[in-house]
Amino acid sequence: MKVLVAMSGGVDSSVAAAELRREGHDVVGVTMRLWGGESDTGCCSVSDVDDARRVAQQLRIDHLVFNFSEDFSTHVVDPYVDAHRAGTTPNPCIECNRHLKFDRLSQRARLLGFDAVATGHHARIERQPSGVWRVARGADAAKDQSYVVHMLDQRELAYTLFPVGHFTKAQVRERARELGLRTASKPDSQDVCFISKTGGRETFLGHRIPFRSARVVDESGKELGTVDAVEMITVGQRRGLRLPGGAPKQFVLDVDTERQTVVVGEESRLSRNDMHVGRVSWSHEPLPIGSEVMVQTSAHGATQPALLEEVDTNSVVVRWREAQRRVAPGQSVVFYDVTDRLVLAGGIAS
Amino acid sequence: MGRLAYLDHAATTPMRESAIAAMAPYLAEHYANPSGSHRFSRMARTAIDEARDDVADVLGCAPGEVVFTSGGTEGDNAAVFGAVRRHGGVAVCSAVEHHAVLHCVEHLHGEVVVADRFGLIDLAALKQTLERVAQRGERVAVVSVMAVNNEVGTITPIRDVARVVRGSAEHAVFHSDAVQAACWLDVRDIVAVTDVVSFSAHKFGGPKGMGVMVVKKGVTLEPLIMGGGQERDRRSGTSNVAGIVATAAALRETVTTREAEVVRVAELKRLLIEGICSQLPDVLETVPGVGTTETRPSARNIASTVPGVAHLCFADVESEALLFLLDEAGVCASAASACASGAMEPSHVLRAMGVPSRFAKGALRLSLGHTTTSDDVAHAVTAVVASVRRLRTTQ
Q1: C-alpha angle with apex B66: B163 to B69, nearest 5 degrees?
Q2: ipTM of the complex
């Protein structure tokens, strides 16, 4: 097959490319140029492109660079800024997967005659006996990235390969070492690629939106303090609230950017029996009401059982079997099957 | 993969045999540093003196006005930064300059003058800009306008620009990036009316990493590179003797063969453009004008382009995708410029020219040179037509 491998300059995508080459496919590596601004994190920066290119040379495959910075701005950066303006906490890496890797890039790949797109994600793609494609968790539970690739639909799933999903992370690094790849011991990139380590989220957003202060109040409305930037506050947050010490720990229960108010209370006040999830993408078809699902609400969080109480084409209401902490609006929520292995759908907590 | 059809001569062109032959002895045999005091050094010294005389003769300037550099980028930087640092004041350039000029001017918070739809600096706007600087009580340190645009091939009527510069900023250093000019124009005309000119050897069949700057007598620039005082203190660093000798040889051969080459290549360009445009709809010949075999550009209502650059814009196609398919078909071409990561940047030149986005996104530069044959052109026509059709019909 003619496969286009997305190479970020990291060890996972390096080994993904190597595996495909080993399997005898006609492989071309591509690095997407997404962010043109300041960056010192380890994803797709200029030095990462160099790493990707050199690995490609070692593997004797062609390496291309596609400039998708306009799409990245429109679909990832601008929405990230807007979400903060509205007081929600987005996950830009998921939007990058949704709009860039598994949309813009796969479309370009089809246009150029490739039979599949591959990435180094720690996840697997399985075809069920029924013919339905599913994302399955990667072999290494600690590194599983099925959560961030939950949005692939049947068309994309049939076109995508995850060559390292059945390896553990240790096996991936071992493989890279065996092949003498320069990225074998390169640390994983943890951060958002367009937020610099030095400035952080605050500097980035500070240049783009006017921060507004907010009153910090308890549920009765009693004012307890203030914060300088309501846009930086997240539901569930405990630190950085500048509250007087001594009292039981206060958690952010709600953020209202319009009224410039942050409501805090004890942890138990975060407890919820249900959750509204919008922008739902179904891997296959919407599930019936009453379906049992396992729900994951953060990249490496534990899943919790729930039932789908209401189901719409792009929104659901989920009822937890046991009350759970409120999920910060803007966070991604992914539904797995009852065996907690296969992705069924995903969306965004509202 | 069969033979490559190389149509990227504006990016670089193969070294001429005469240049390779000229430089060979200076690599392992006559390798002395020309700045030394022994006879071995004197031999190397003589080689560069002779090369300098030769270059001066070809360019129509005095040997003392020739400065050897590491290339066009250095020459451009030296002109812009050199003028501002020496004389103080504002740097001015056109919006279609190569980044080696544009980024310098932007870095210095200078003035960028708009261009017209042909990719020519707007002379009225230039005059206004120069006058505005004067009204602010500032002086213009340097005005930089390229002789030939590297992306779309437009030839600047440099005499007309000189008239405006001398008229509205008489003390400014007038610089022209002539990196794309040597193969196609009689550059003596450019040298005659400017203060500083930059050339790049690898664009006319010399080695990469070498360039020539003409700095007219009486014009002073603060040197970009200081050190041992070579090039009469204008550009320090051990002379690249082999590179200098090769550069002179390449330039001499270029100028000797130019008139015939201009005619030969203009015809190949015509076949290339007609071949493509006759088989595809929705193609823009980016500079709406007349290709020329004239080496002295003149007409103002028609923009002339050099024979070596054929620039087209295809609607509903993306340059990156097109270049990929052309590469698969063995055709080497380019579009706009690459950034540090190797990705293509949208063209600032096309934007300055007001080319509609639908077309600008599908820009393609096919450039011809001294080794281009009619087979290359035929191969390119076939590949471009097939690739554009494929991209337009695949869903």
Answers
A1: 105
A2: 0.89
What per-residue confidence (pLDDT) applies to B291? 45
**Which stretches in chain A have pLDDT values below 50?**
none
pLDDT tens-digit map of B164-212: 999 999 999 999 999 999 999 999 999 999 999 999 999 999 999 999 9
pLDDT for res B302 = 58
Residues contacting residue A285 through CB under 8 Å, at least 6 positions apart: none
Answer yes or no: do A111 and B345 touch at CB < 8 A.
Answer: no
Q: Which CATH number fits domain B5-14+259-393: 3.40.50.1970, 3.90.1150.10, 3.40.630.40, 3.40.50.10240?
A: 3.90.1150.10
Distances in whole angstroms, Cα of residue A69 to Cα of each of A64, B273, B350: 15, 31, 18
* Contact residues on chain A for B346, CB-CB shorter than 8 A: 67, 70
- What is the pLDDT, as a whole number, of residue A41? 58
CATH topology of domain B17-252: Aspartate Aminotransferase; domain 2 (3.40.640)
Query: Which residues neighbour A19 within 8 Å (Cβ) at sequence distance 6 or greater?
Result: A163, A164, A175
pLDDT for B295: 44
End-to-end CA distance of chain B: 27
- As a whole number of Å, the end-to-end CA separation of chain A is 41
Q: Which domains, and CATH codes, for chain A?
A: 2-178 (3.40.50.620), 210-265 (2.30.30.280), 270-349 (2.40.30.10)
In terms of DSSP bridges, do strands A160-161 and A116-118 run parallel, antiparallel, or are they unpaired?
parallel
CA distance A22 to chain B (A): 22
Contacts of A37 in chain B (CB under 8 A): none
Q: pLDDT by residue (tens digit) across A141-166?
A: 999 999 999 999 999 999 999 999 99
Tell me if B201 sits within 8 A of B207, measured CB to CB: yes
**Which among B324, B346, B394 has the least Cβ separation from residue A64?**
B324
Shortest Cα distance, chain A CAs vs residue B344, angstroms: 6
Comparing CA positions, the residue from B206, B129, B198, B197 lying closest to residue B169 is: B129
